[in-house]
Structures are given as structure tokens and as C-alpha cells.
Design a protein that fits this description.
The structure holds three protein chains of three kinds. Chain B is an alpha/beta fold. In chain B, 32% of the residues lie in helices and 8% in strands. Chain C has one domain: 2-Layer Sandwich (Beta Polymerase, domain 2). Classes of the chains: A alpha+beta, B alpha/beta, C alpha/beta. At the A-C interface, α2, β6, β7, β8 and α13 of A face β2, β4, β5 and α3 of C.
Amino acid sequence: MTEQTKEALRTDEWTINMGPHHPATHGVLRVELTTDGEIVSKARPSLGYLHRGMEKIGERVTWGQFMPFTDRVDYLAGMNCNCTYAWAVEKLAKIEVPERAEWIRVLVCELNRISSHLVGWGSFCADMGAFTPFVYAIREREWVNDLFEMLCGQRLTYNYARIGGVSHDLPPGFLGKVKEFCDYFEPLIDEYNNLITYNKILVHRLKHLAVISGEDAIEWGLAGPNLRGSGVSFDVRKDDPYSVYPKLDFKVVVGHADRGTLGDCFDRYLCRIDEMRESVKIIRQVVAQIPDGPVRAKVPRVFKPPAGECYFRAENPRGEHGYFLISDGGTNAYRMKIRTGSYMAMNIFEKVSRGLMISDIPALIGSFDIILPETDR
Amino acid sequence: MSQDPAKPKTKPIKSNIFDIVPAPKELPKNVLQKNFERVRGTCAGGEGFVQVGIADLFINWCRKSSLWYLFYATACCGIELMQGGASKYDFDRFGAVFRATPRQADMLLVCGTISHKMAERVQRLYHQMPEPKWVVAIGACTITGGPFYKDSYCVVKGVDLILPKVDVYVPGCPPRPEAFIEGIMNLQKLIMQTKNFGGQKA
Amino acid sequence: MKPLTAQEIFEKLKGKFGAAVVELQAEGFNPPFVVVAPGSIQAIGRFLKEDPELLFGSLMCTSGVDYKDKFAVAYHLHSMKLGHKIGIKAFLPHDNPSIPTVDVVWKAAIYQERETYDLVGIVFEGSCDPNRILLPDDWEGHPLRKDYKYPEQYHGIKI
């Protein structure tokens, strides 16, 4: 090739924009991709397209009035977010929650974990190009939606937990239906594994992709299945337990380099599938052991927790969900900080996406299972 | 001749159509011209000598039966949109399939809260959609800002502040997929009333 | 190695850093907070992460707080190996609050500090990415401050 040809054929990097409206970004996420042909040299996420000012709202409404907003922080895990906020306020105000309410909270949290992982799994496969698992996931999710509708009347944003307990008791026949759902759903996890998980195309696309080591995962603040997929055995339910989790027997699902390297996308994906299995196990134990009793503690109508500061965290489907609450003795929070798992997943995104192909970017976003309202609040 | 009570008086049957239908005042001789005058009074606009009644019906039927929606899901209502598109509630039986690109979409189902950072992008998506297009505002957040109306500093209080027109509003937080379907059916009724060749709009 | 109590951690830090460690806020604070001087936050952070009896490898949460007469940055730390938790707080003056960044110690601080700058207005000196993150780049003001007034409109859209 002559010098002139080389000069005429020089390559440049190209900046393209992915999002905020994009079918594979799980919401309104914008990624500024700088690519050299097909290979991404820089992928900088741009957040804030769903920023709604939740933390400021928390300062302007009363403690009890903030409960419906917690649903909207992570709408796929509404029960988990409700319960985390309730636990945080109860820790701040040192309120004793009745036993039955705690068991009910764990039951609904685990049901919601299953439905959240189903959507994560379904939309991840849809991003890969396999649309059938998405339709199956939504179909199974309808079962959980029906259960929640029987319980509290809502399919998505439940507002079920209250400070001091839950809003109302389980309706008659609910536990029987939950058991029916467990019996129906457990064999389906294996069926779906046979359908898609060990499919050659999916495995080839995901193995060795975006490997995050255990030390990096801790350092960059990852949590939940993203952290456990890198081999770190840390689950808030086991290592920093709350509610009735110490009485339950379940395994912490950790990535084990099933097909590729430890900490790649495939490990994170498998963590979620196996976590659904563990959730079914927990639900069966709760249904067998739930005691009778009241479901709500006596909390004054005008609720004013004593002045103080408190940090509480729980294991949400997307990782560690934490509330840092500051109370000045008034009816509203003085400061409320919500720490979410998806936000920290975006933290490591730029580092991990260097050197990937453009078509690996949706795979990476899907393997982190982010949800934008949690990222943006 | 006296009348027999057993036999009622009957009029002789005439073959002229105007014995059944009241005749207009000034009557053209030609039968086709007669029918045209009768139909033109009920038809759109009446500009020119073109019968457009059936064409309107046909075009509107085609459009309402194949409303492709843009897969625009910002927040919680987006999940109900996905549930609606899947097998239990199935928008596809209304002809509504989702398209990822606005260039191929007829209908913009605005699902989810619009923040100020996102507002300009929604406008751009709307303008990228080719005509004819319709906008359905789904959920309380797109109608008035929803639960974020009073206390949030960065939520647009209703998508009609940023888009030129909104055809149907579907309230709820989030609305059930059945409510989505009612919204789409209302939009279909609206489309059937559209006059495509001039005349009074529905 | 066993988990330490907040008092023991405070005493260890006081022994190493002396006057930079101001006080322990224990009553009404869960987890308790060790109040430190802002200037030494990087050195204290490194010590907390690397000392074999502390090993605080995980920065759970960074929050900026507006206490009306002063600002504060609160860090919540957790040790996965030893299982103890502590909070570190640094008080900042009300005009021009700024503090050295800890993203050289814990990379989790990068996005957390960006959010604190965006919403509360605390400047993190030496940060590798000192930009707004959640609000648009041309937004004026920092909403989580107590004296923040909601603007009338943004780009012509009524707020």
C-alpha cells in the first residue's frame, strides 16, 4: 500500500448515540458509544432521563405518605422496596413489628423477587434476539400478578407494607394459591433452562464477556446477583440478616464459571435463574411456618420518630437497597438517601465495556439487570 | 261500490321509488342524479363530484385495524404495556404490534413519567413519526404529572405540555392492560370518525 | 480477626490520626459516626481500607446532607471479611463546601460523589469525573439544599 493510499484510508473513531429511547436499554438510558468500527473504545452512560426527585419528595411528604413512592423507585420489585423502607423507618424509630407481619413481608418479597427475575430474564433474552422466553416470562409473571391482586388489589405498584407491619392480613385461600403457584413454577425453571440457558448461541454470546473479578466487584460497589456472579458469596439476607431470614434455610447462589470465566455475563445470568429456585424454597418454608397474630403494630397517626440517623439495607432483586434516613423529630424526613444496586452497576459500566463489540453492549446491560428508576430515582 | 270490512283497503303498488322515500323538492330527471343528490347531502364536505363516503370508511378501517405502536416505555406504565403486548391481554388481536423505531409507528403510547431531561426527546420522537399519527397518554404521570405533581422539581406535568396533540388519555397508576385496551378502542372509534377528505372533523 | 465495635474503631483512628478525628456520634446514630476533619479524609479512608484489623473494603453509601448551618458528607462503610460497619462524617462550611475525593480509595465513590455534587452541591476535589449526572447539564442550583427554590420553568416547560 502506498503512503498516499494509507493517508486516504485512515480510520477514525465514530461517536454514536444509543438511547435514551432504545428497545434494548431497559428504560431511558443513554450510552454514548465511541467505536472503532465494530469495537467499542468508550461507552459512557448518561443517566437522569427518569430523575424524578424522590429524595426531595421524601423531605416534603410525611413518613407514611412516602410509601407509595417507594414502589416507583423499583417498580418491578415494589414489595421489596416497600418493605425496605418500612424496615428502615422501624429501625430508626425502634418499632417492634408483629411476627406475622414479618413472615408476610418475607413471603411477598420473595414472590416479587421471582417476578422481577422473570422480567430480567425475559427481557435479557429478548435483547439477545430470542423473543419466546420474554413471552413465557410475562405469562408466568401473570400468575404472581394475580396473587398480588388477590392480596392487595394492585398488579404493579402495591403500597402494601406500612410502618409497623403490613396494610391488611392475607385473604382466605391465599396461602393455598401460593403453594399451587410454587408447585406449578418450580419444574418450569428446568424447562426454561432446557429451552434457552444452555443454547449454544446464548452461551457463545455470553461466556467470557465483560469479566468482573471479585475484588473489582467489591471495590466498585456492585451488589446482588452482579456481585455474587463474580464469585463473592455475600447476601444481605445471610450476612447482615434482618426480619425472619435467620429462621429460613436457603443457599446463597454464587457464580462458579459454569461455561466461561468466573464473573462473566453468563455467571450473572445463571445466578438469577438459580435465585428463583431458592426463592421458591423460601416461599414453601414461609407457607408452612407462618404464625397467626396481628399484622400491624400500634403506630401513632401523626408519626414522629425521635431525632437520629439510621442506615438500613435489604437484599432486593437488583442488589443491596439501602435507606439512609435522618430524622429531626418532625413529621417529614429531614434527609432521605436511597442507595440502589442499579446505580452502582452503571458505575462499573464504562470500565467493563471497553473493547467489547457493539452487539455486546445490550448483553452487558441485560446481564446487569438494571432498571432506570432505580438508577435515576 | 261499498267496502267489504273483511277486505281492508290497499293502495295499489307503484314502482316509483319516491313513493317509499320522500322526494326532494327539485327533482332531477335522471335516476343516477337523484341518488347522487341524496347521498351528497350526507357525505363529507361535498366538494367536487366524487363519492367519498365509502373511501373514508375503508381508509379509517384500515388504519384502525393496524395501529402499530412505538415501544416507548419510560417507567411503571411501560411494564403494563409489556404485559399488554404479551399473551394474556394480547394487543396483537387489535392489530397493534410494537415497533422499536418511530419511523414505522402510527401510535405513540406515552407510558411513564416524562422528566425535563427527556421532554425534548419525546418531542423529537413525535416529530419523527410519519403522518397519520396518534398519541395516547397512558397513566397519571403523562396526564398531569401523577404522584409527582406537587413535590417534584423535574417532572413534566403532563405530556400535552410538550406534544401538539394528545388524542386519548388513559388514567390509572398504572392502568390495567384492560384499560390500555379501552384506550386503544376509544382511539379506534375516534379514527373511524375521521373525515379524510375535508369537511367537519369529528 | 474479629469484628470491632464503633468505640474500638474510633480509638484506633484517634490513635493513628490524632486531632483529625474529632468525635464519635453514637447515641441515636445507627451505625455510629466517626466525625473527621475533611482534609484528612483520603488518608483516613486508605487506612480504613488497608489496615488488617479494619478492612473496610466496601463503601455502601455516600450522602451529602445540608444541616442548614453547615454541610456534611456521610460515608457508610462495611467490611465483608470482618463484618463490622461504621459511618464516617465530615462537616463542611456552608459557603463553598468542598472535600477531597475518596475515589482513589474506593471506586464505588465515583458515581456516588457525582450524585452528591449534582444534588447537594458539594465539590469533590481531585475527582476523576466532576460532572452532573442526574440533572441536565444546564440545570441551575442544587435541589437537595434546604434553601433551594423550585424554578418557574425549564426550557419553556412549566415546572
